[in-house]
Amino acid sequence: MIDLHTHTNESDGSCTPHELVERALGMKLEALAISDHDTFAGYDQAQPLATAAGLDLVCAIELSARIPAQNHRTAHILGYFLDQPPSLDFRTWLDGVLAARRERNLRLIAKLQSVGLNIELQEVERLGRTLTGRPHFAQVLVRKGYAANNDEAFRKYIGESAPAYVERQSAPVEALIQHVVDAGGLPVLAHPVRLGIRDSSTEETLIRELRDVGLRGLEVYHSDHKETDVERYGNIAKRYGLAVTGGSDFHGSVKPDIALGTGRNGNLSVPRSVLEKLRSA
Ligand code: AMP
Ligand code: ZN
Ligand code: FE
Ligand code: FE
Fold this sequence. Notes:
The chain folds into two domains: 2-86 and 173-280, Metal-dependent hydrolases (TIM Barrel, Alpha-Beta Barrel); 95-158, DNA polymerase, domain 1. 43% of the residues lie in helices and 17% in strands. The protein has ten helices and ten strands. The strands form two sheets. Strands 1, 2, 3, 4, 5, 6, 7 and 8 form an eight-stranded mixed sheet that branches. It is globular and about 55 Å long.
């Protein structure tokens, strides 16, 4: 079993990179990708330990993009760096992404304050390391009693249709895919089910269009995918010559219902052959 989609506390997970490697070793995962949002800091820290312990660690990242043709809906693109490290240019570009996040956090705090909440940026930033994201805001909102749990914090305040939602600047998906390719990475559409496109032919057309602008893979296996989703995306991948990937999207105690390797209530089991095919893709 392998897991090609996980987060550390360098983005919005709860485990340190070392803890994540220890867990992967403890459950005898055959390969682990660290795919933090917008940063390689977690991968960079985990890499020496993984090498020493003989764990097959894959360098990856998860980036947000908007889809102009779909009303600027957000898409997550995973970039897998299988045979060369990400370019320096790309790492520099990430600094700009992190700066845009900081600017967004300022606007988010102002908006939360304007709807009457007593919250300071400092107390949220204390929870983040390389970056502070909405899940950190949610944790503070729960701790302060403004929401009963994470989901409610998103629903009541910071989710996409909530009153204090603030968008963050993101690249159009075509440009982002090209950027990952230029950096030496293999771009994959993450958890396609979360695009929330109900009409399956519209969904398929979008995936084909992304393939036409450089997308190379589809995250067929994911904790949010039902059996029917796995089948549908598996077929789409085959039809359009996209590589298949999969992972739990583990975030530690931030998303306690998702387990490393095995997903939600054991709904996930990604075979090692997925990585072997990805490497030869
Ligand atoms: P950010 O990158 O700061 O905009 O935060 C995005 C992250 O927040 C996503 O990767 C999810 O983990 C989480 N998230 C987004 N929307 C929701 C929601 N409605 N409920 C729970 N978590 C969410
Ligand atoms: Zn996350
Ligand atoms: Fe995601
Ligand atoms: Fe993720």
